[in-house]
């Protein structure tokens, strides 16, 4: 009797449920959304990368990182940018409100980049808070040059024309804010925000809201 009841229950299920596929959940393709609301930290960037890596395993075609961030650790941003670039998946970024400092590098990592109405990009000179001893000063100065070169390279690759970098160079000496009109004009956003409504989204969005941190002795923004 138990066997008969099991057979009847099996055939009572829809065909796709009998085959083991989840109901109303796409098995491949689509865009997975990551909402980053907060600072760039080791923890927040590790979570962004882990979510993207998991998305690859599920067959997602694209990761869409929607950013509202006042910046944070440049080394954490470098990790995320390089880790995302190593994945066989399309990365799209969206400036949803303020995108500042090291968060700009993450925004520029998108193959497609969107800017929401009223969103801004904030650029300022990268700073180090560590005290320098005589024996480490030259090594740290070299690292600063490497980081500054990497950051400038991210900015230049984010622009429609290399010559637009002349407009941004002054950020190294004074703070600079770009509005959504500037961001589109310079080519930092290379796709139209309303087009986001046409995408096929996969699963639930992942929200990453990092805690505030103290910069400590090795912080750089």
Textual characterization of the structure:
Strands 1, 2, 3, 4, 5, 6 and 7 form a 7-stranded mixed β-sheet that branches. Residues 1-26 and 214-220 have low confidence and may be disordered. Helix 5 runs parallel beside helix 6. The chain is built from 8 helices and 7 strands; from the N terminus they run H-H-E-H-E-H-E-H-E-E-H-H-E-H-E. The termini are far apart. The chain has 221 residues and is an alpha/beta fold.
Strand-helix topology:
Elements lengths: L1 H11 L2 H4 L12 E7 L4 H17 L3 E8 L4 H12 L4 E11 L1 H7 L3 E4 L4 E4 L10 H24 L7 H4 L7 E4 H6 L20 E3 L13
Parallel strand pairs: 1-2, 1-7, 2-3, 3-4, 3-5
Antiparallel strand pairs: 5-6
Helix pairs in contact: 3-4, 4-5, 5-6
State the gist of this model.
This protein has 221 residues and is of the alpha/beta class. The protein is built from eight helices and seven strands. α3 (42-58) runs parallel beside α4 (74-85), α4 (74-85) packs parallel to α5 and α5 packs parallel to α6 (134-157).
Distance between the termini: 69 Å
* Percent helix range: 25-40%
Number of strands: 7
> Unreliable stretches, pLDDT < 50, 5 or more residues?
1-26, 214-220
Structural category is: alpha/beta
User: What Rg is obtained from the alpha carbons, in whole angstroms?
Assistant: 22 Å
How much of the sequence lies in strands comes to: 15-25%
The biggest beta sheet is recorded as: 7 strands, mixed
């Amino acid at each position: 009797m138990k066997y008969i009841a099991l057979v009847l229950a099996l055939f009572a299920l829809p065909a796709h449920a009998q085959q083991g596929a989840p109901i109303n959940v796409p098995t491949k393709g689509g865009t997975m959304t990551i909402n980053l609301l907060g600072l760039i930290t080791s923890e927040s960037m590790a979570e962004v990368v882990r979510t993207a890596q998991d998305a690859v395993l599920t067959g997602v075609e694209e990761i869409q990182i929607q950013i509202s961030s006042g910046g944070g650790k440049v080394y954490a941003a470098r990790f995320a940018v390089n880790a995302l670039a190593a994945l066989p998946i399309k990365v799209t970024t969206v400036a949803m409100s303020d995108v500042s400092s090291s968060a700009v590098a993450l925004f520029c990592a998108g193959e497609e980049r969107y800017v929401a109405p009223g969103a801004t990009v904030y650029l300022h000179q990268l700073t180090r808070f560590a005290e320098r001893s005589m024996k480490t000063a030259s090594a740290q100065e070299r690292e600063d040059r490497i980081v500054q070169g990497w950051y400038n390279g991210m900015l230049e690759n984010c622009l429609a024309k290399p010559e637009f970098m002349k407009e941004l160079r002054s950020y190294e000496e004074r703070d600079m804010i770009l509005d959504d009109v500037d961001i589109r004009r310079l080519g930092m956003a290379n796709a139209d925000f309303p087009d986001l409504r046409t995408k096929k989204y996969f699963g639930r969005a992942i929200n990453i809201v990092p805690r505030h941190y103290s910069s400590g002795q090795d912080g750089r923004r």
